[in-house]
Amino acid sequence: MTNFDSQDDFRSWGNVLKESHAVARPIWRDQLKSAILNGRQQGLSLLGAGLRRSYGDSGLNPAGGMIDMAGVDRIIAFDPEKRLLRAEAGISFDTLLKVIVRQGFFLPVTPGTRYVTLGGAVGNDVHGKNHHVNGPIGRWIRRLGLLRSNGEELELSTSENPELFAATIGGLGLTGLITWVELELITVESAMIDAENIPFENVDSFFALAKESEEYFDYTVSWIDCLAKGDALGRGIFSRGNHAKAGSRLPDLGNTRFTMPMNLPGLAMNRYSINAFNALYYWNGKRTAGPARIGLHPFFYPLDSIGRWNRLYGRGGMYQYQSVVPPSVQVEATRDMLRAISVSGQGSFLAVLKTFGAVTSPGMLSFPREGTTLALDFPNHGDDTLRLMRRLDAIVLEAGGRLYPAKDGRMSAEMFQQGYPAWQEFARHVDHGFSSHFWQRVSQR
Ligand SMILES: Cc1cc2nc3c(=O)[nH]c(=O)nc-3n(C[C@H](O)[C@H](O)[C@H](O)COP(=O)(O)OP(=O)(O)OC[C@H]3O[C@@H](n4cnc5c(N)ncnc54)[C@H](O)[C@@H]3O)c2cc1C
């Protein structure tokens, strides 16, 4: 369990990258130190792993040692008065939700899948549909335990080792192994969401809806038909919602209906099927628009309804591309990116557009910043796809924006360093016993 005696191939969630790792699978917190010391004795550079929902190479450490934290997954303490929950880093949001929702609590921030761990969420400082209200999750982390490669155990918070705390939030697992996390929860009155879907015609109407909605809705996000052109450029479905004030506290029983048993043939993902999907999704969204009271799972985690949905992209896999650009240029930059995608004909099934608010987190390498984020899935068509993403890189760089490391497997060192000016300060806190494929790539001078 702590000896790195199994050698496994790990794929990125996008399925483009595959690397072999020696893996330790501890179960108990008191095994973590010996796992780290064993790995170092074997000369391995280390990396903590959660449920490996990062799309690119930030969770891969080729020829190194992976500490799989999914077995270290217990709740340690809960103070309902202070809304503070302390849990081991390997606990999943899925498990946490099963425990907290029926007691009237909810996660302050959740990404679009519940199959992430607390440690992984800290490692990427994840954001959700309520970024404009609650900021990234790092803002809600009160304390955490960190184990360094020399076996030193530290407690981090804004008052204790504050710089290392800031480096660890969004620190991509490079400052050490997160062993436990103390998270502040929010209260909810039910397990339901009052949601509303509104079709919109183009980029301008998206920004108008976002502005209007942010004042009254805690959660906002949009799906975009990224193959639409001309006056319809950027048309989509705007989704907004609040926790319902009444209704059952019992969460719905999850929404996973079907699990992809294998990779789909790559041919299934071509410009015709993507075009047809986008048009159908848009017209269906128009037909079913309006308010509805729905459960947490369909609102927050629609993608979890198909287990291992990443296999839909076939053996070649897919790239995710998530950018954020600042408010002053967000309208033009979003238009430019959508135009470039539409012209290329390489659409995305899942094109998500959202405005981020000004609420920040302590994380030095935290991705979210005020502005607009666009997230896209591109089936991997080799050079054509890479060329399109380089075109998008140029738009993002010119706009003064940046890309999300959790979604990336190919950005240049220059792109990373320009987007994250604090990276050199961050590098001073990296534990040299830890590494990742991502870090080796982007920290080159
Ligand atoms: C369908 C889907 C929807 C998503 N939606 C969003 C979204 O809306 N917002 C968003 O922000 N992200 C989103 N993501 C990305 C996902 O939330 C992040 O990649 C998240 O960090 C994954 O958690 P994980 O437990 O799988 O971590 P992993 O992917 O295993 O690891 C993430 C990082 O944290 C490090 N790490 C993990 N555990 C530890 C530990 N115990 N100690 C130290 N370092 C550790 C890893 O080394 C890695 O660098 C989505 C992903 C998917 C698949």
UniProtKB/TrEMBL annotation:
Domain called FAD-binding PCMH-type: residue spans: 16-188
InterPro entries in alphabetical order: FAD-bd_PCMH, FAD-bd_PCMH-like_sf, FAD-bd_PCMH_sub2, FAD_lactone_oxidase-like, Oxid_FAD_bind_N
Pfam family, one: FAD_binding_4
Keyword Flavoprotein: yes
MF annotations from Gene Ontology: FAD binding; oxidoreductase activity, acting on the CH-OH group of donors, oxygen as acceptor
Keywords from the named record: FAD, Flavoprotein
Protein name per its UniProtKB record: FAD-binding protein
Species of the source: Endobacterium cereale
